[in-house]
Amino acid sequence: xxxxxxxxTGARALVETAAAAGxxxxxxxxxxxxxPLVTALDEVxxxxxxxxxxEGVCTGAADGYARLxxxxxxxxxxxxxxxxxxxxxxxxxxxANSPVLNVVGDxxxxxxxxxxxxxxxxxxxxxxxSGWVGTVDSAARTSQVTVxxxxxxxxxxxxxxxxxxxxxxxxxxxxxxxxxxxxxQTPAPFATGRVERTAKRLRDGSRSVLLxxxxxxxxxxxxxxxxxxxxxxxxxxxxxxxxTAERGGGLPDLDRLPYFPEAAVKALADAESVVLAGAKExxxxxxxxxxxxxxxEPGSVQILAEPGEDGVGALEELAExxxxxxxxxRRREPDIQDGLPDGPLAPASIGRIVSALLPENAVVSVEGGxxxxxxxxxxxxxxxxxxxxxxxxxxxxxxxxxxxAAVAAPERQVIALQSDGSAQYTxxxxxxxAREQADVVTLIASNRRYGILRxxxxxxxxxxxxxxxxxxxxxxxxxxxxxxxxxxxGVPGQRAxxxxxxxxxxxxxxxxxxxxxxxxxx
Length: 522
Prior knowledge:
- There is one protein chain.
- This protein is of the alpha/beta class.
- Helix content is about 40%, strand content about 15%.
- It has 21 helices and 20 strands.
- Strands 11-16-15-17-18-20-19 form a 7-stranded mixed sheet, with helices on both faces. Strands 3-2-4-5-7-6 form a 6-stranded parallel sheet, with helices on both faces.
- It starts with 7 loop residues before the first strand and ends with a strand.
């Protein structure tokens, strides 16, 4: 239902329209050309402003928020350079199909011809990381163009939308009513014919893999997939880097498809059918000579549901078509029942300790290979929780995504399981966590090197022993002082070197509430 707004600014019309569409949070790093929008946030209390000290924190937080809340968060960014600072995490958000609404202030329309120092081609910057890009061309159309941006952002499979708003149109008076906001979108229906074809291929007993992605990684989707697996022998995998995935609490022990292409090819090599449910066809992260880019055997891929379609419904209908009964409900208690590992910390022991101590319904933002895979292996037997992973591979996502998740779900405990190198890209997120008193415990896997780069050096025939290679892949000269860095941003920090120290520090941090940081020395 529209409301008439009399004598308000274009900026207020934009903010009111976004709030009417259900947008509740704006992660902002504004500048001169966004001051009318800042004033509008004063006037529209339904939209909460959250300041980030760096635009990559704002965009990553909006992504994490959207993944947990299932609806858009808004960012407020300053011109093209400010938007450019946030692009890496918008790349991840696009790969996660997160409905982020970016609002970017631009110079006044009459000032643009003069090529002022901060003028840039914002459309060209935004296009690669946005499914929709638009510019407000008059104050009167501000609300309508905002609605178009929101509709694009929220239409499955969802995408980022970037709305560019010249400063003069933000300031001008608007007397037109607000445009009607788009209704909530539901996933597109799946094709029944695909269910029938897939059932036929699975009934014959051929070796099969069911690869899950997007909403099929909810508990309901995994239960349906488990029924299919138990009825047909199909092997279950999650896509390698899912946007969100439910885990633990009796759900299937669902492996992620391996990251390195040789291991992924091996995992899929025997499959005569690779059935995609909400996942895209698996592709090698990088091209290596002699290794195929497409990881499944040619001709084996079968699409059950595309991203953006009702993949859960497709799985449930497939299970019914196969006569698959209810899945087994075997559940093993968390590893805390078996005793926690002590001694010097290693990735496997960290995975066990964190999994064992996870509170029920926690959210874990995972970034980094050092502890990410060991945690994922151990967490199959943890309490029920939700994981967020780095969907697009642009590092610096983990801390902002954890922040956004905590804002979206303040009743849930958030853990940021983070490698030390990638944490430095968006370390400013700690300050916003402190300011907002976000319930985030940050666990830094501190091995003082870029471990993945050393692995890649070996793959390319190099060695970390050379002077340039050692210099460009190490973080120990000088070593990072994580407790001091955390304290500088207003977050209490501790250091743990053994399993016993980590368990004790994690229990203390969880009990204390608010933002906390623990450096886990490897």
